[in-house]
């Protein structure tokens, strides 16, 4: 056994309001710069829908993730080592900008600067790639709220799969409408295909917290990682020529702060916590023959922090004490391994993803509710799982390689929880058979309810800080003694403080400095000509 | 089971195997991974990106009433990004906290700080500035210069026609301010201070900014225009029923409800920061019902989705009320409900009946004066029948107790020994009489207003105080007649059962109007009432613009309120109505109001009803297609005969029901100077006709306003109000903007379609050969709009959405229809004035600023959509 710790996330899709605050805050903090206009480390997809980049889930097309070879060993779907070497200068499986969208801006200046004419001036769209006027034909969220579904909904790879099973399974008609939102970030997988794909070894997974990153010094822009990731969460910066990806906001996690997308999530649907796992079991789990077994196999890789033997092994392996304690209080561990309501996204890619999802409930189909049966009967008040609009099979294709049983079990627990809590809400005794039917004790259901509904900030984000010994090395905690406005040369006082200008290593890549100052010039100058980059 | 302990053996693996001696780090036995130490210098890259100098707190002063607290990160003096602050006061251990609030619009706010759309200097229309400077140079004085310009129709026309068409030039603050001041001084001197006006809505979003301008206008005697009614956000039902502008629970109270209906409110979009309460409450066993014409953002959270045709919600609510009255009042008395309505509603009040056309019609409330009582306020005191003694008594708490000295200590709902009788049914003294009630659900009429049909339904009535006394019944008895809930012995035209669709207000009747199946209506009504009974009043209806922006919205809202009052929910935690305004308040309201209205200098301030101001001064009154009598009840007294909307408005001004600025057809300063006793003399001249109200002739040059200041507002865009398929055109709230704010924000545009768009159902798109993202034009007699189509099956057929407010500043080409830039979402709509909103001077129906007034409702519009050429010109 080789215990390791990772900070993992659970997102409760039943709570997502599809607002995209997470996308905007992440964008402003991380990818609000040239070369990254089209990049959204965090994006939110309306389902059914194609996602971004379009149809990324079609691995027959994109060859992302892993598969098993004839011998039952893992192999990158995009090809073995020699195959990849042969195509290293011409990777045919790379999404183009149009698969994401061509980013654009507008000629806003025209609104104030237009000369007197005979009609209202307008700011027309201009491509951020070519600088020329363009027609807008796709965006980062084109099919939001089922926009264009009659035209593109069939291209959703999950819909395609469902139609193979039964042609009437998904109909884009008013009465049968269903919809949910899927926020996505990098999965920070235990078996990352992106890391395995990099010819220069520029990608790495941090040992202390499992965060997967691209080394901006060593990246040579081969872009094999973009192909390798089946979730398409490594992106190419077309200005620097390097790959970049979600960093799980490690500068924040290291000081105990949640990721930006989590903290700003208006729906309060995200959880962050430590998961302990056995690194020696990862390959075996990822290699189980039947892809429907991958969910259970991954559960088997996780270690139970309540087991004293596990805790001892973790200490011996060098995992800090407060991390082990955090694992015991981890809401992610509770939702994944104890309550078993959270499920992995596309386990069949065999990357062992570490951002899991609680599937969403949905309204009852019209046909059934029109019968007018007595809705106050507890059994009928909340729809039976089979009468809910989102097809179980659709959710199963997303979360369990098509096995509907775990999805049904998860939704039944949520429905049972609602039924149990309703009785308490009205001041009546709950029917204990409801909880028992889903294999939970009443206190368990009530604890799960508290975690899903009431959980405070410190209950949703249980993040141990980096070990004390590392504190000095970490910028964020290298605070001066007093307020930065109290001494000359501090930030805000003119000049550089510990966080200003050049707070990283002395010899930062030129691109970073250029971007920052260029941006600043553009932001403050009146004349666009002044803002041209050197 | 795969062997992961021995190295792989396929070709290429040999290379890997050999290479392990040349690579740093420790490989795993299966060579699938390698562990290294050091080499983590690259981590610095993103730490550098994250580094910042400080975090400051702010909010976004936009009109969403969210008032969210944000952390603004600053790096080298530049705002870089924002995240929400989470330090809201705790609501306790057993409820979800408020944090983090916020929304994607707010998260994108800092883009504006440095965007090219930010106006940092004064701009003046070039042609105007040129002409002003010329006159100023010639005449040496700003005011004569402005007068010179105004006196020349040709120069005036030149700058007016240049409006909106580019040609802005930068001016200095001194020059810009001088020009404005000259215009105002000239106007005040020539036409009067009430020909200057200010418009700035929603003080709470930035109190100081609002107050500064409002104070200035008040000090120079210029009116400030109302906005709450103008934006049709005022729920007129609230002043009508409660005499209260609006009061709603904080969003946290949604959590307390056991049954929640979102009715016309797309909470995830319009109440984004607080939407989580609705979501989390479901886990606590709350049942959620969404009523929306489309499968909206909130529909995904519903247990049940009801989708009535847009605007027919009142019928659904009436039918639910029918079920509740039948099953929880008439068939079985429900003590929790009956006790509530006796005390907290007017259901027990006695109403007089007067003879009409062989039957009776309800007239006014019975007053204490009708019982020959006199004394202070007797004319304003209502009467009930005491259940126990059978006598008519006057309970506390009516208007007559409010403003009188003798009423002190009795302006409350303490009933003492009185048990108000809900109904006269079954009493010896009562006999059934037929009451005539209007029906508005019939076909016909030149303008679709119906046939003016009348229903006859029986109520138990009694004559008080002998043969000559007033004939009365209770409000409750009338309510049962209105709702069509029959009791044995009551004559008239009643439905036989829930399935009888001939006559209001059965579940089957509403199905024919709304398309919601009768059985579903019954089910929801029963669930609603049973939950209210079991939870002691914790049913809530969350209402929004989807039901409040219609011409008849106050009746829709009153139908909702009836459901909540009948079931004892209004006024309880977790129960009652929750409108979308009322959370964001000017905290230091009294001091702020004094400052803003300049009441420390002069009282009262001039305040004008916005809707009327725009209706008259943009000449929309000329476009009414029918007179006010078309809207009249068939049982009315014919007072609207020959009157238009503008006539009703003029009447309300003359009667003093509504304020009216510009007021007279003469400069008020002149009136004040000329006369000894200005008020008496003005009244005398009004009587002879020598002095008239300006609103009686709005197009006369001496009567129209001259200078308007707009700040913190966007009036001309968002507020000023097509092979073809004819559709119902609606303008709901946008997900990617907050009204007109953010619609030009690059992040919001990148996350949506990047320009003006109209949502439509596939059936309508197919009918005109339109595919998703095709350019289309929407045309009606009011104007033309060019946009791209969004085709989605979540839209109901026959209805299109153009979310507000997509301004035509971004990505809007010229239209094919006119060859000019088309309009915005309100181009296709028009103001229609509702006469009953002009009532004033009567109990709670008395005007106060933003409390009462005609609403600028604009939802009911029909338009034609057609596909246009896909080649566009900008």
TrEMBL record, chain A:
One of its GO terms (biological process) is anaerobic respiration. Its cofactor is [4Fe-4S] cluster; [3Fe-4S] cluster. GO terms for cellular component: cell envelope; membrane; nitrate reductase complex. InterPro entries: 4Fe4S_Fe-S-bd, Nitr_red_bet_C, Nitr_red_bet_C_sf, NO3_Rdtase_bsu. It holds the Pfam family Nitr_red_bet_C. It is found in: Cell envelope. Residues 7-35, 177-208, 210-239 form the 4Fe-4S ferredoxin-type domain. It comes from the Bacteria. Residues 515-534 are annotated as: Disordered. Keywords: 4Fe-4S, Electron transport, Iron, Iron-sulfur, Metal-binding, Repeat, Transport. One of its GO terms (molecular function) is electron transfer activity. This is Nitrate reductase. It comes from Streptomyces yokosukanensis.
Automatic annotation (TrEMBL), chain B:
Coiled coil: none annotated. SUPFAM superfamilies: Formate dehydrogenase/DMSO reductase, domains 1-3. GO terms for cellular component: plasma membrane. It is a peripheral membrane protein. It is found in: Cell membrane. One of its GO terms (molecular function) is metal ion binding. Residues 53-117 form the 4Fe-4S Mo/W bis-MGD-type domain. Keywords: 4Fe-4S, Cell membrane, Iron, Iron-sulfur, Membrane, Metal-binding, Molybdenum, Oxidoreductase. The keyword 4Fe-4S applies. InterPro entries: MopB_CT_Nitrate-R-NarG-like, MoPterin_dinucl-bd_dom, Mopterin_OxRdtase, Mopterin_OxRdtase_4Fe-4S_dom, MopterinOxRdtase_cofactor_BS, Prok_molybdopt-oxidoreductase. Its cofactor is Mo-bis(molybdopterin guanine dinucleotide); [4Fe-4S] cluster. It catalyses: nitrate + a quinol = a quinone + nitrite + H2O. Its EC number is 1.7.5.1. Belongs to the prokaryotic molybdopterin-containing oxidoreductase family. This is nitrate reductase (quinone). It comes from Streptomyces yokosukanensis.
């Amino acid at each position: 056994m080789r215990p390791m710790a990772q900070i993992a996330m659970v997102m409760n899709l039943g709570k997502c309001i599809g607002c995209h605050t997470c996308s905007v805050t992440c964008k402003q903090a991380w990818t609000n710069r040239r070369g990254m206009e089209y990049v959204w480390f965090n994006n939110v997809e309306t389902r059914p829908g194609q996602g971004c980049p379009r149809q990324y889930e079609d691995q027959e097309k994109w060859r992302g993730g892993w598969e098993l070879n004839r011998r039952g060993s893992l192999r990158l779907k995009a090809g073995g080592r020699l195959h990849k070497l042969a195509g290293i200068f011409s990777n045919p499986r790379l999404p183009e900008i149009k698969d994401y969208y061509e980013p654009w801006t507008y000629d806003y200046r025209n609104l104030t600067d237009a000369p007197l004419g005979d009609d209202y001036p307008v700011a027309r769209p201009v491509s951020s790639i070519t600088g020329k006027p363009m027609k807008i034909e796709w965006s980062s969220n084109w099919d939001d709220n089922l926009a264009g579904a009659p035209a593109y909904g069939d291209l959703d790879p999950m819909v395609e799969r469902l139609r193979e099973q039964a042609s009437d399974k998904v109909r884009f008609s008013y009465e049968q409408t269903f919809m949910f939102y899927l926020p996505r970030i990098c999965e920070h997988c235990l078996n990352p295909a992106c890391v395995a794909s990099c010819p220069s070894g520029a990608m790495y997974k941090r040992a202390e917290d499992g965060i997967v990153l691209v080394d901006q010094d060593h990246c040579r822009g081969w872009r094999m990682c973009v192909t390798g990731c089946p979730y398409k969460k490594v992106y190419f910066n077309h200005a620097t020529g390097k790959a970049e990806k979600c960093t799980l906001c490690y500068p924040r996690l290291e000081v105990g702060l949640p990721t930006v997308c989590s903290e700003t999530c208006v729906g309060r649907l995200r959880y962050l916590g430590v998961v302990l796992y056995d690194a020696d079991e990862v390959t075996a789990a990822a290699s189980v023959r039947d892809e429907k077994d991958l969910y259970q196999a991954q559960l088997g890789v996780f270690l139970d922090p309540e087991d004293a033997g596990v805790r001892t092994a973790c200490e011996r392996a060098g995992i800090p004490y407060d991390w082990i304690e955090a694992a015991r209080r981890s809401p992610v561990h509770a939702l994944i391994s104890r309550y078993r309501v959270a499920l992995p996204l596309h386990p069949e890619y065999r990357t062992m993803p570490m951002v899991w999802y609680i599937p969403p409930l949905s309204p009852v189909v019209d046909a059934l509710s029109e019968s007018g049966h007595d809705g106050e009967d507890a059994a009928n008040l909340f729809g039976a799982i089979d009468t809910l609009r989102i097809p179980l099979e659709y959710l199963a294709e997303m979360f369990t390689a098509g096995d509907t049983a775990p999805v049904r079990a998860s939704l039944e627990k949520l429905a049972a929880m609602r039924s149990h809590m309703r009785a308490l809400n009205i001041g009546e005794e709950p029917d204990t058979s409801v909880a028992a039917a889903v294999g939970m004790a009443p206190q368990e259901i009530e604890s799960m309810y508290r975690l899903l509904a009431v959980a405070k900030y410190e209950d949703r984000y249980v993040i141990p800080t980096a070990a004390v010994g590392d504190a000095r090395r970490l910028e964020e905690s290298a605070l001066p003694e007093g307020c930065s406005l109290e001494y000359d040369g501090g930030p805000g006082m003119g000049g550089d403080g510990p966080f200003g200008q050049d707070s990283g290593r002395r010899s930062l890549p030129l691109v970073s400095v250029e971007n920052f100052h260029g941006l600043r010039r553009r932001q403050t100058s009146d004349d666009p000509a002044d803002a041209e980059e050197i | 089971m795969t062997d992961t302990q021995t190295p792989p053996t396929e070709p290429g693996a040999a290379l890997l195997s050999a290479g392990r001696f040349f690579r740093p780090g420790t490989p795993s036995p299966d060579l699938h991974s390698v562990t290294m130490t050091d080499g983590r210098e690259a981590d610095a890259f993103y730490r550098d990106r994250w580094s910042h100098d400080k975090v400051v707190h702010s909010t976004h002063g936009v009109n969403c009433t969210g008032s969210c607290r944000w952390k603004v990160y600053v790096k080298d003096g530049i705002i870089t990004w924002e995240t929400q602050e989470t330090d809201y006061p705790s609501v306790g251990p057993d409820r979800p906290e408020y944090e983090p609030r916020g929304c994607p619009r707010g998260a994108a706010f800092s883009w504006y700080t440095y965007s090219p759309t930010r106006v940092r200097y004064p701009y003046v229309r070039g042609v105007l500035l040129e002409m002003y400077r010329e006159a100023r140079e010639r005449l040496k004085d700003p005011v004569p210069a402005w007068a010179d310009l105004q006196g020349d129709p040709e120069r005036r026309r030149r700058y007016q026609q240049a409006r909106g068409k580019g040609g802005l030039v930068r001016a200095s603050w001194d020059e810009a301010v001088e020009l404005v001041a000259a215009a105002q001084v000239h106007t005040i001197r020539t036409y009067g201070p009430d020909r200057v006006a200010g418009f700035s809505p929603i003080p709470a979003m930035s109190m100081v900014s609002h107050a500064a301008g409002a104070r200035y206008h008040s000090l120079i005697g210029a009116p400030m225009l109302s906005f709450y009614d103008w934006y049709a956000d005022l729920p007129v039902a609230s002043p009508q029923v409660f005499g209260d502008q609006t009061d709603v629970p904080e969003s946290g109270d949604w959590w307390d409800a056991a049954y929640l209906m979102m009715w016309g409110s797309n909470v995830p979009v319009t109440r984004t920061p607080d939407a989580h309460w609705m979501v989390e409450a479901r886990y606590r066993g709350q049942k959620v019902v969404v009523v929306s014409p489309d499968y909206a953002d909130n529909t995904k959270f519903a247990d049940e989705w009801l989708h009535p045709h847009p605007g027919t919600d009142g019928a659904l609510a009436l039918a639910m009320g029918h079920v509740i009255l039948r099953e929880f009042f008439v068939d079985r008395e429900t003590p929790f409900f009956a006790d509530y309505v006796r005390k907290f509603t007017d259901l027990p009040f006695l109403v007089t009946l007067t003879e009409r056309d062989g039957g009776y019609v309800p007239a006014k409330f019975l007053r204490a004066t009708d019982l020959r009582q006199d004394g202070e306020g007797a004319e304003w005191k209502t009467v009930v029948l005491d259940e126990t003694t059978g006598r008519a008594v006057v309970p506390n708490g009516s208007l007559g107790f409010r403003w009188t000295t003798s009423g002190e200590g009795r302006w409350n709902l303490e009933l003492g020994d009185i048990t108000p009788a809900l109904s006269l049914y079954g009493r010896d003294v009562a006999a059934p009489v037929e009451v005539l009630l209007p029906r508005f659900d019939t076909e016909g009429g030149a303008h679709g207003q119906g046939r003016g049909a009348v229903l006859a339904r029986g109520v138990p009535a009694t004559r008080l105080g002998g043969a000559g006394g007033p004939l009365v019944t209770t409000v409750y008895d009338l309510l049962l007649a209105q709702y069509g809930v029959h009791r044995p012995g009551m004559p008239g035209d009643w439905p036989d059962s829930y399935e009888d669709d001939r006559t209001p207000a059965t579940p089957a009747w509403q199905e024919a109007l709304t398309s919601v199946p009768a059985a579903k209506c019954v089910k929801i009504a029963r669930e609603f009432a049973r939950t209210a009974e079991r939870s002691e009043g914790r049913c809530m209806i969350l209402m929004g613009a989807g039901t409040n922006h219609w011409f008849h919205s106050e009746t829709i809202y009153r139908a909702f309120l009836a459901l909540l009052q009948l079931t004892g929910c209004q006024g309880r935690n977790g129960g009652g109505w929750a409108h979308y305004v009322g959370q964001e308040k000017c905290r230091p309201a009294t001091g702020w109001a004094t400052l803003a209205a300049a009441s420390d200098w002069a009282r009262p301030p001039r305040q004008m009803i916005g809707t009327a101001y725009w209706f008259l001064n943009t000449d929309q009154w000329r476009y009414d297609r029918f007179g006010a009598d078309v809207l009249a009840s068939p049982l009315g007294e014919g007072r609207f005969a020959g009157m238009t909307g503008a006539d009703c408005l003029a009447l309300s001004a003359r009667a003093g029901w509504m304020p009216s600025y510009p007021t007279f057809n003469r400069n008020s300063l002149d009136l004040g100077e000329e006369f000894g006793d200005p008020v008496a003399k003005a009244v005398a001249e009004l009587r002879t006709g020598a002095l008239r109200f300006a609103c009686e002739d709005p197009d006369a040059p001496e009567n129209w306003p001259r200078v308007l200041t707009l700040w913190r507002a966007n009036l001309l865009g968002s507020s000023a109000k097509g092979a073809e398929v004819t559709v119902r055109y609606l303008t709901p709230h946008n997900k990617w903007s907050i009204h007109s704010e953010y619609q030009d924000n690059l992040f919001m545009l990148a996350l949506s379609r990047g320009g003006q768009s109209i949502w439509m159902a596939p059936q309508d798109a197919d009918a005109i050969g339109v595919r998703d993202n095709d350019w289309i034009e929407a045309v009606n007699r009011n104007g033309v709009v060019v946009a791209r189509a969004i085709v989605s099956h979540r839209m109901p057929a026959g209805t299109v959405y153009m979310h507000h407010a997509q301004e035509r500043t971004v990505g809007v080409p010229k239209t094919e229809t006119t060859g000019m830039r088309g309009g915005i979402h309100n181009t296709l709509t028009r103001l229609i004035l509702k006469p009953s909103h002009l009532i004033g001077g009567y109990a709670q129906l008395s005007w106060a600023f933003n409390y009462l007034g005609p609403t600028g409702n604009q939802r009911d519009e029909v338009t034609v959509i057609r596909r246009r050429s896909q080649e566009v010109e900008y």
